[in-house]
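Summary for the steering committee. The consortium agreed at its last meeting that each partner would contribute one worked example illustrating the joint modelling workflow. Our contribution is presented below. We chose a case with several input lines so that the handling of multiple components could be demonstrated. No manual editing was applied between input and output; the record is shown as generated.
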Amino acid sequence: MRLLVVEDNEDLAGLLAKGLDSAGFTIDRVSNAIEARTALTTTRYSAVVLDLGLPDEDGLGILREIRSRNDPIPVVVLTARAGVRDRVNGLRSGADDYLVKPFAFEELVARLEAVLRRPGRWLGSSLRVGNLVFDTEARQAFIDEQPQALSAREVAVLELLMRRHGRVVTKKLVEDQLFGLSGEVAPNAVEVYVHRLRKQLAEHGAKVQIHTMRGLGYLITEDK
Amino acid sequence: MRFHSILSRIIFLHVIAVGVTSICMPLALYWLLSAAANDLHNGALRENADTIARYLTVRDGSWAIELPAGLKELYSESYGRYAYTVLDSAGHVLLSSLKDGAPIFSSDSRAANTMFLETRRDNATISGASIPKVIDGRPVWIQVAEDLAHRDVLIDDIVAGFLSHVGWITLPILLSLLTIDIVIFRRALRPLVQASDNAGKISPTRTDVRLPVNEIPKEILPLVQAVNQALDRLERGFRVQREFTADAAHELRTPLAILRTRIDTLADQTAVEALRHDIAGMSRIVSQLLDIAELEAFVLDPSERADLRAVCAEVAEFIAPLALGQRKSIALSGADGPVWIKGNPDTVSQAVRNLAENAISHTPEGTTVEIVVQEDGSVCVLDQGPGISEGERELVFRRFWRRDRSRAGGAGLGLSIVQRIVEAHAGTVTVANGAPGGGAQFSLSFVLSN
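What follows is the complete predicted structure of the assembly.
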C-alpha cells in the first residue's frame, strides 16, 4: 500500500519512511505543500500522513482541498499543537485521525491501519485484538481461528468495541447502535449484553478484557 | 462636586450661569431704565430753566418776568407741581413763583455749572436744578423744581413696573436657551457616545474592534486615533504571543518526535522502554511549559460557555486507556444532564485533565479515580492515594513544587496550570483529603451560565 508522508523535517520524515516501510507500506516523501499537491494529483495513494506545520503554509489547507474534491482518501494528521481546539479543527477539516508530536510509532501504525480498515477502505475487513478476530463483512468473531456463536446484538456490541479498540465506546453509542433511535431501552439492557459477551469470550479463551468504565462506557483491551 | 459626564458638567455650569444672569440682567436693565428716566427728568428741568430765562427781563433796574398765560398756570402755587426762583450773585431772591419768596434751594447752591438738587419742603420731596445764566450782562441763577409727588406718572410707572412686568421674561428666555443648548450638546456628543459604545466592546478576546473616526469632532480625533493605535499595538502583542507559542510548540515537539520515532524504530529493542519513559516525561514538561505560555495570554470571552459534564466525560474517555495501562480505572458520576458554565471548553478540559492525570499517578494500582460533576457548576476529582497533608495544601499550587524531588516524572507545573485556568474563569480550586481512606480530593468550582 502506497502512503504519502508530508513532513518538512528531514530527520522525522526519514525515520517515518523507514519505519513505515518495515511495517509493510510503500512510502513517498514530500516536504512542503506545493510538492504535496503535485504528488496528490499525480499518484493515487492509500492514505496520507500530513504534518500541519509546513514551511510554506498550514497543512490544514491541503486537507480542506482534498475534502472539497470529495476525495475520501484517509488522512492522519501530525501536529505539534496539543490543544483540544486544534484537535477539533483538524477533525472538522476532514482528518480521519490526529496524533500530537511526539507520538509512539506503534500508535501511528495502529491509527493508519484503523483508518484503512474503515468500510470501503483499503485494508481487509478483519479487526484483531489479541487472539480475537472479527470479520466485519461476514460479521463473524473468531477466537484462535475458531468461529464463535454470538447473538446479533452481541456481535453488534463486539464490532463497536473492536472498531474503537483502545478507546472508550460510550454507553449512549452502544444503546443507539443496538436499539436505534425509536426503541425503548431498558436501563440495564446494555449491561446485560456486555455481561453475556464478556462471559462468552472468557469461556472460549479470548485473551481480551472488556472493561466497564463507570459513567463513561466500555473499552476492549488485549489481556497481557 | 464631581461629574462623570461632560453633558451633566455643562448643564450644571449652564444652570449656574442662567441663575446669575437672570438676577443680574433685570437689575442692570432696571438701573439703565432709571438712569434714562432721570435724564429725561433733568432735561425737562433744564428746558424749564431756559424758558424762564427767555422771559426774564431787566426794566429800570429791577427784574421782571412775563410768562405767557399757559406757562404761568404751570408755575402757579395752586397747581403746585412746578416752581422757580431767580437769585442774583449775592444770593438775594430776585423773583420767585412761591409766595414766601424764599429760594427753593439754599443760596449757596450757586455754582458755575448746572447742579441737580433735591430737597424737602412741606413734607414733599422737591427735585430741581440750579442753572447759572447771564441776562443783560448780569449773572443770575435760575432754580427750577418739580414736586416729585407729581412727577411724570407714565415714566415712573414704566420704571416701577419693570421688574414685575418685563423683568420676569429673562428667566424663561434663559431657560429655553438652556433647553436648546442641552439638545445641541447632546447632538454634538453623539459621535463620542458611539465611540464609547465601541470601546466597551473591546476585550482581549475581541482585539479587532476599533473606535469609529468618521464623525468624531476634530478636537477629540487625536485622542481616538491614539487609542486606536494603542489597540493596534496591543493586537500585535497578542498575535506575537500566539505565534510564539505555536512556533515554540513546533520547535520543541518535532525533535522529541524524531527522538521517539528513532527509538521506536530501533532494531535492538532492549533498553527501549526506559528511553520511552524519559521521552514521555520530557514531552509532558514541554507540553506544560507551552500550556503555561499559552495561558499567559488567555482571557475568558464572557460570552463563552461550556458543558462541564461533556468536558469531564471527554477527559475521562481520553484518560481511560492510560489508566487501564497502569491497572487503574477512572469513573464519571454526578449530574446526568449538561451542566453549563461560563467557560472556555479547551482550558476547562485542560484543568480537569491535569487533575485527572495527577490523580491517576497517585492512586494505587487496582483503585479508581472518581470524577464527580455537580449541578452547581463544580467538579471533584478524587483519588485513593496518600492524600495531601495540611502543610502542603498551599505548596502544591506553586510552580515547580514537587513533594519528592528525587522522583522522576512531572515538573510540578500541573496544579499551577489548573490554578491559572480557574483564576481566568473567576472560579475556585480547593484541595482536601476525602474520607474515608484518605486520598486527595481536588474541587474546581465555576460560574454557572444561564
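Chain A is about 40% helix and 25% strand. Residues 126-222 of chain A form a domain with the Arc Repressor Mutant, subunit A fold (CATH 1.10.10.10).
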